[in-house]
């Protein structure tokens, strides 16, 4: 990145930053001020054919994950080794077992918990130069930033209308057309549909109620509030609580109704927390077993008739280990979860090769693998959980055999670099980036396994771009910038 130069009038940069703040594209600071999210001045491009393929295949991935997540015995059997290697997922597996109860003595099956699964998922892709578009990861819990994705599209539309000549100067292809992005409305539509489905089962007056479970002192609140505002427009009441607050405020009503003190019946629970130990940690509880009390809130919620995202099952089904297993399976095996063979083959077409970590694989990697073709991942969510290049061999050598199952090797993706340099804006400062690459996350919404958007389950996209030289591309925790998408024929 070059710095200190003014590639665009600073007045235009400030105008764009003020637009971003005014429209909620921001992070909250510790002193309660707001800082705009980093963004690109003009969108990236993708071939329309590639984009259409992703629009077709992503709801099928969600359909597959919906089926896998409700297959209790399969999850328990297939993830047991990973659960022993990763303490956090080990605790999730215990919660999962607890939520599903003991086996029914008559038919040998586990009793499904009362909650109704609402899968709000983001599937992240990179368009590899040689392999084409491939999945990086599934995000089934705290899969946020759909609102920011739509706002980035709107920001670029604003730049096009307000500062047309500058926008055109940085546009990759002047003939490209903006890809529609209605993620905010479609995600809210899916949530509203599930909220109303629960609400109608109870003879209660008033609006359906949506509960967002959030982290304490969260800084990524504006993305969350944008979704809440859209839900309020669609006639849904919204409330926010931490796990700690819920530990004292939840109770059970008639017919397995989930009740929140001072609010009443809850129709949808949406977890923007719960993907790491710290979300369940309350030091004042002074627990013998870390995080037990707050993690039990999830089991309590799932024993009620309420739409939930993410269920414990969904979190397990979108883990890196499950991604690896699905990648290594034959397409025919997907048929057990309701896909046709054609649908299964479509899903397989976008899954990048993955390998489990074992003594043999470590030996192969250290002696004959091309180290730049692989990335080593653990089960963590968000940024900072990937290891690249020569660091992989070093990490593999450190691992104890009992830790192997918490890790996986995945084919490294090398997306196309943008054809023209880009102006990135961070903290109101402009920087020229000449090697920008992009990752596209497609949102889907399914309730009880069925699509609940006007677009067959699809619910908008999020583009995050970063310099090719940077490994961490998160907006929140890496060198990523918000971006949008234009299509070329």
From TrEMBL:
The UniProt entry's GO CC annotations, sorted and at most eight, read: cytosol
Q: Name one GO molecular function term.
A: glutathione binding
Q: In which pathway does it act?
A: Sulfur metabolism; glutathione biosynthesis; glutathione from L-cysteine and L-glutamate: step 2/2
Q: For the Glutathione synthase substrate-binding domain, which residue ranges apply?
A: 209-317
Q: Which residues form a coiled coil?
A: none
What InterPro entries does the database record attribute to this sequence? Answer: Glutathione_synthase, Glutathione_synthase_a-hlx, Glutathione_synthase_C_euk, Glutathione_synthase_N_euk, GSH-S_sub-bd_sf, GSH_synth_subst-bd, PreATP-grasp_dom_sf
**Enzyme Commission code(s) on record:** 6.3.2.3
One short Pfam name that applies is GSH_synthase
Q: Say yes or no: keyword Disulfide bond present.
A: no
Names of the cofactor(s):
Mg(2+)
* PANTHER family referenced in this protein's UniProt entry, alphabetically: GLUTATHIONE SYNTHETASE
Entry's family note: Belongs to the eukaryotic GSH synthase family.
Q: Could you identify this protein by its name? A: glutathione synthase
Taxonomic lineage per UniProt? Bacteria, Pseudomonadati, Pseudomonadota, Gammaproteobacteria, Vibrionales
């Amino acid at each position: 990145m070059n710095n200190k130069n003014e590639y665009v009038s600073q007045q235009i940069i400030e105008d764009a930053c003020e637009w971003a703040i005014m429209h909620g594209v921001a992070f909250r600071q510790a002193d309660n001020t707001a800082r705009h999210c980093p963004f690109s001045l003009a969108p990236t491009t993708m071939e329309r054919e590639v984009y259409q393929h992703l629009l077709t295949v992503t709801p099928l991935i969600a359909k597959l994950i919906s089926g896998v997540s409700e297959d209790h015995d399969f999850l328990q059997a297939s993830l047991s080794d990973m659960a022993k290697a990763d303490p956090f997922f080990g605790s999730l597996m215990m919660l999962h077992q607890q939520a599903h109860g003991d086996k029914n003595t008559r038919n040998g099956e586990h009793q499904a918990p009362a909650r109704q699964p609402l899968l709000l998922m983001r599937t992240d892709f990179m368009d590899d130069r040689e392999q084409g578009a491939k999945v990086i990861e599934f995000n089934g819990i705290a899969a946020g930033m759909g609102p920011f994705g739509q706002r980035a599209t709107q920001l670029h539309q604003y730049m096009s209308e307000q500062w047309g000549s500058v926008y055109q100067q940085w546009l990759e292809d002047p003939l490209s057309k903006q890809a529609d992005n209605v993620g905010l409305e479609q995600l809210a539509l899916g949530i509203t549909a599930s909220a109303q489905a629960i609400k109608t089962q109870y003879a209660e007056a008033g609006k359906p109620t949506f509960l967002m479970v959030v982290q304490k002192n969260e800084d990524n609140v504006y993305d969350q509030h944008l979704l809440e505002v859209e839900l309020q427009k669609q006639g849904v009441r919204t409330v926010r609580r931490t796990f700690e607050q819920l530990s004292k405020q939840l109770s059970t009503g008639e017919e397995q109704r989930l009740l929140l003190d001072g609010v009443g019946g809850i129709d949808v629970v949406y977890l923007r927390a719960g993907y790491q130990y710290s979300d369940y940690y309350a030091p004042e509880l002074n627990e013998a077993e870390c995080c037990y009390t707050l993690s039990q809130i999830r089991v309590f919620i799932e024993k009620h008739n309420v739409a939930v995202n993410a269920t414990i099952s969904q979190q397990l089904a979108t883990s890196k280990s499950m991604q690896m297993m699905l990648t290594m399976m034959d397409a025919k095996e997907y048929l057990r979860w309701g896909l046709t063979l054609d649908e299964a083959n479509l899903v397989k077409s976008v899954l990048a090769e993955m390998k489990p970590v074992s003594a043999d694989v470590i030996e192969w990697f250290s002696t004959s693998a091309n180290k730049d073709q692989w990335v080593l991942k653990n089960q963590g969510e968000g940024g900072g959980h990937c290891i690249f290049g020569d660091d992989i061999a070093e990490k593999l050598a450190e691992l104890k055999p009992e830790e192997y199952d918490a890790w996986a090797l995945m084919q490294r993706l090398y997306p196309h670099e943008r054809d023209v340099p880009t102006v990135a804006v961070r903290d109101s400062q402009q920087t020229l980036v000449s090697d920008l690459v992009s990752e596209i996350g497609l949102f889907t919404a399914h309730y009880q396994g069925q699509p609940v958007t006007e677009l067959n389950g699809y619910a908008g996209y999020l583009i995050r771009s970063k310099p090719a030289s940077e490994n961490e591309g998160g907006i929140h925790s890496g060198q990523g910038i918000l971006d949008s998408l234009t299509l070329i024929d």
